[in-house]
Amino acid sequence: MILPIVAYGHPVLRKVAEDITPDYPGLKELIANMWETMYGSSGVGIAAPQVNKAIRLFVVDSKQIIDNLEDDEKDAYPGDAGVKEVFINAHIVSTGGEDWPYNEGCLSIPKIREDVERPETVTLRYVNENFEPQEKTFTGVTARVILHEYDHIDGKLFIDHLKPLKRRMLKSKLDDISKGKVRVDYKMSFPK
Predict the structure, then answer these.
(1) Residue pLDDT, tens place only, 110-127
(2) What pTM was computed for the model?
(3) Which residue, 16, 102, 142, 174, is most buried by CB atoms nearer than 10 A?
């Protein structure tokens, strides 16, 4: 089932999400719905706060990005084949490499894209959908997508990485989004 994506201004997007246990009600269905919602809105990742759940859960399919690159473009992301994975109770162990810019967008902040600087690598400790402990290092675009989704479970948004002047310049567009004055081709839930 495709779930509505909460829009900028909704308080759940600013909450630090809670860890969950394997008996979290309807977890398998929620994960399936998050995949369907992500693909239905042409996303490459989605976090539980974006579907109004303040829990440490996100899904990522960066293979879509890598698979759509030309061969010469793939050279820009050595060691990054992309992943399709569920991340539960994720916590950053470390980040590394040089910060690099990339033009990011967000399903909760439609029609706005900006260059955001993020580290080249991230090492995460988390559990998968079977609650099997994992610790992995990700690089390139995959690291970026993971860091973007990780921000969501920490109550942050990609616009928080922008300089204050740039954020002020976006204020009216952000206000319009929170008022529902934006057209998208997926279901959204706007703040009251």
Answers:
(1) 999 999 999 999 999 999
(2) 0.95
(3) 142
What is the gyration radius of the CA atoms in the chain, in angstroms? 16
Catalytic residue among 104, 114, 120, 149: 149
Whole-angstrom Cα distance, residue 47 to residue 43?
11
**What does the block give as tokens for 107?**
């399903």
Please tell me the distance from the alpha carbon of residue 185 to that of residue 42, in angstroms, as a whole number. Answer: 10
The secondary element (H helix, E strand) that includes residue 182 is: none
First to last CA, the chain: 23
149 flagged as catalytic: yes
Backbone angles phi, psi at 58, to 5 degrees: -150, 160
74-110 pLDDT tens trace: 777 777 889 999 999 999 999 999 999 999 999 999 9
- How many other C-beta atoms lie within 10 A of the C-beta of residue 174? 17
